[in-house]
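Q: Got a minute? One more chain.
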Amino acid sequence: MPEQGVADLRHLALVMGAAGLLLAAAPGAVRQHNAGAHLLNQGQAAEAIPLLENAVGIDPNYAQAHGDLCVAYFRVERFADAARACEAAVRLDPDRRTGHLNLAATYEALGRWQEAAEIYTRLLERQPEDTAVRERLEQVRAAAPR
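A: Always. Here it is, folded:
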C-alpha cells in the first residue's frame, strides 16, 4: 500500500476512535447532559443539577456529565458533592486537564489544601510553564494551616 494510503487509514482510525469516544455515552444520558449543560452555561446551576444527575444516573461512565455536575454543585456551594463528581470525572477521564483543575478548586473550597497542592504539583510536572497553576499552588501553600 502506498505511504499516503497508510497515512489516510491511520487518520481515519483516529477520527473513528474519537467519534466512538464521543458517541459512547447512552443517548438518554447525552440528552440530559446537553440540557443540563445548556442551563449551566446560562448561569442556572441549580436548575442544571437534576438533569446532570439524571445523565450520570443513566450512564455512570459519562465523564463529561460528571465534570459538569461538579461545576454545577460548586456554583451552588455543595462542595462535598462537587468533590465526588469531580473525582468521578477525573477517574473516568484522567487526561482531561479541566477535571483536575476543577477538583483542585473544589478541594480548596473544602479546605483540603494538601490534596489541592498535590494536584497542582502534578499538573506542573506535565506543564512546568503554566504560570496560572504555579500561582494557585503558591496560594494554596500559603493558605494551608501549618
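A: Confidence is low (pLDDT under 50) at residues 1-23.
Q: Perfect, thanks.
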